[in-house]
């Protein structure tokens, strides 16, 4: 393989490595973001539960206000009972008192029901807060792991960029421009091997004459079908 073709193969492999760092970093950050999203979702649920508890407490306060009214009414009826004399008035007051007592009992039962719901809401809130603590601990640990992974990737990427800079400094500018022109549309398949006499970019079969040029590797040869730069793989590759 001539020097220029070997440089193009090397450059293509370096560019592939560089381009592969972005999805690796995205994947790492995505896992981190998922944990953060879980915590945000839990915080939203906790806030929702707190609002529901506040509404329930407001209902209890309102019901207690009615209880005070019913108690006052029952006391007032008791006072009136001592003053009335006719049987009709007594029956009316007894009926009014029974109704007030029923309302008072129903109000007390409603408060009991609301308090039980609040207890359940507080249990749910405690579970959510415990889950949040667990996820937060996991997130803290993951943050450290991500920082280490990103640092390692950055070190790798820095070394790869150094390799690329050294390679570019030694390359023919016309050949480099030719490569970059193909790479604009072919991306990381600008330089591809020939396997079983087929281009591994478009997978079309190469004619015998072109294939013979590729095997000799004396010149830079492009695929007659797609225009990608072709090379014959070595045994090591």
Molecular structure report:
By secondary structure, the protein is mainly alpha-helical. The chain has 2 domains: 136 residues, Helix Hairpins (Orthogonal Bundle), CATH 1.10.287.1490; 57 residues, no CATH class. Helices cover 79% and strands 5% of the residues. The protein contains 4 helices and 4 strands. It has a 4-stranded mixed sheet. Helix 1 runs antiparallel to helix 2. The longest helix has 84 residues. The two termini are 13 Å apart. The mean pLDDT is 91. InterPro entries: CT398_CC_hairpin, Oxidative_Scav/Glycosyltrans, Zf-RING_7. Keywords: Coiled coil.
In short:
This protein is mainly alpha-helical and 237 residues long. It contains four helices and four strands.
Index terms:
237 residues, mainly alpha, Helix Hairpins, 2 domains, 4-stranded mixed beta sheet, rod-shaped
List the helices and strands and how they pair.
Elements: H1 3-83, H2 87-170, H3 173-186, E1 191-195, E2 198-199, H4 208-216, E3 221-222, E4 229-232
Parallel strand pairs: 1-4
Antiparallel strand pairs: 1-2, 3-4
Protein name: Zinc ribbon domain protein (DUF164 domain)
Domain C4-type zinc ribbon: 198-230
Domain CT398-like coiled coil hairpin: 11-184
- Beta-strand fraction estimate: 5-15%
Question: What's the overall average pLDDT, rounded?
Answer: 91
Radius of gyration in whole Å, from Cα? 40 Å
Low-confidence blocks of residues: none
Major sheet summary line: 4 strands, mixed
CATH architecture of the largest domain: Orthogonal Bundle
Derived structural class: mainly alpha
Kindly identify the CATH topology of the largest domain: Helix Hairpins
Reading side by side through the largest sheet, how are the strands ordered?
2-1-4-3
Question: How many strands in all?
Answer: 4
Kindly report how far apart the N and C termini lie: 13 Å
Top CATH class of the largest domain: Mainly Alpha
Q: Tell the overall outline.
A: rod-shaped
Helices, by number, come to 4
Share in helix: over 70%
């Amino acid at each position: 393989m001539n020097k220029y073709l070997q440089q193009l193969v090397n450059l293509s492999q370096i560019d592939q490595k560089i381009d592969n760092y972005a999805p690796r970093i995205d994947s790492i950050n995505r896992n981190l973001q998922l944990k953060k999203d879980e915590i945000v979702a839990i915080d939203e649920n906790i806030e929702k539960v707190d609002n529901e508890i506040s509404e329930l407490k407001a209902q209890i306060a309102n019901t207690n206000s009615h209880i005070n009214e019913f108690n006052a009414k029952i006391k007032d009826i008791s006072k009136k009972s001592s003053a009335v004399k006719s049987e009709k008035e007594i029956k009316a007051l007894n009926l009014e008192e029974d109704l007030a007592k029923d309302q008072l009992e129903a109000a007390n039962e409603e408060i009991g029901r609301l308090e039980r719901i609040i207890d359940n809401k507080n249990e749910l809130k405690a579970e959510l807060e415990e889950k949040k603590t667990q996820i937060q601990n996991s997130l803290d640990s993951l943050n450290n792991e991500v920082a280490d992974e990103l640092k390692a990737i950055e070190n790798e990427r820095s070394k790869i960029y150094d390799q690329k800079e050294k390679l570019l400094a030694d390359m023919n500018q016309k050949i480099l421009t030719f490569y970059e022109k193909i790479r604009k549309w072919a991306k990381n398949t600008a330089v591809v091997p020939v396997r079983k006499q087929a281009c591994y970019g478009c997978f079309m079969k190469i004619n015998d004459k072109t294939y013979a040029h590729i095997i000799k590797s004396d010149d830079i040869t492009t695929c007659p079908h797609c225009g990608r730069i072709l090379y014959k793989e070595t045994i090591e590759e």
